[in-house]
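During data preparation, a discrete fold description was generated, and the record follows.
___
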Amino acid sequence: MAPPSTPPPPLGNLIRLHPLSLTELPFHPSLPTDSQKPASRPLLPTFLTALLSEATLFIDHTLPTTFHPTSTSKRSPPALSPITLLQHNYPPTTLSTIPWATPPITRSPPPAPRSEAWFARRSRHADAASTGTAAWAEFDAGLRAHHSAHERAYTPDVFAAQRVLDWDADSAGLDLRAEGFEMVDMALYEMGHKLPFPLRPRVFAVLVVTAKTVAPNPNSSTAAVRAGDTAAEAEGEGEGEGLIVVQVPVDARGLAGARYTSGGNVGTEEGVEGKRCVRGRYVSVERARRDVAGQIEWVMGTASDAGGWLPMWVQRLGVPGAVIKDVGLFVGWVGGRRGGS
């Protein structure tokens, strides 16, 4: 990652809480016909490269130069690794400077920018299929492959991972590639989240892009020493396999198949699955990377707005705990899948 003295890069227009409209998505045959304007839609490879590059810039430069740590020793059993928690707030004045209409992907700006409260975590795990950690193959199979379905499996508060569009399975012949990345996949999901009574459940429509990262040249200078890193950690960083998961909000209203967004689920199922949901938004960037020292670095950053009448200051109180808790939930789930505790 970049050294702390490096100035933060300019903010991008994709890794944001402002949702993508249906007209800002690459072509898909199931998008509404009145939105099919090929000339104005981004090409799929251009969109994927821009999104994944912006996400990588966020992890490698924005996070270490802009976010500040609030704790370096959080724990999330059964995971053994200590977790560093970081945060940063982008006020409306900063977000108003984003070049929304600048290529490679041009977007319509939000009518009134609202602040984005970001929380992030960083942890390092032994690359081993043993209690309290996970092997690299388990990280890749659990986080990158079938990401949304697995998130539902290991997160108790997630009750739905409804696939709405899939640019791979539903669009034979489309070009799912991005420069610098491999095994790229893109799909639109509705993620249903339970909230404590009396709050109604939330639905988050997100575009989920996953990929393997191409290992850089081992002779390059990508392994910069961060504050708090040991020399051994920095020496091995970035030289092995990696994966990245990007989730950005989408305004899915009017999209066939977005049943939780449209209310099509109401009364059709028992329990929370059949209740009307409040639309929320979240954006996240997640990367795991294996180094030559036998460690796996796992970094994640997110901002969210659960919508409804719940004040943002109340929402922000619960986000740090949830961000930390996910580490233990994932590691515990992986251990259960391999037959461990």
The chain is about 25% helix and 25% strand. Residues 219-238 have pLDDT under 50 and may be disordered. The longest strand covers residues 181-193. The radius of gyration is 19 Å.
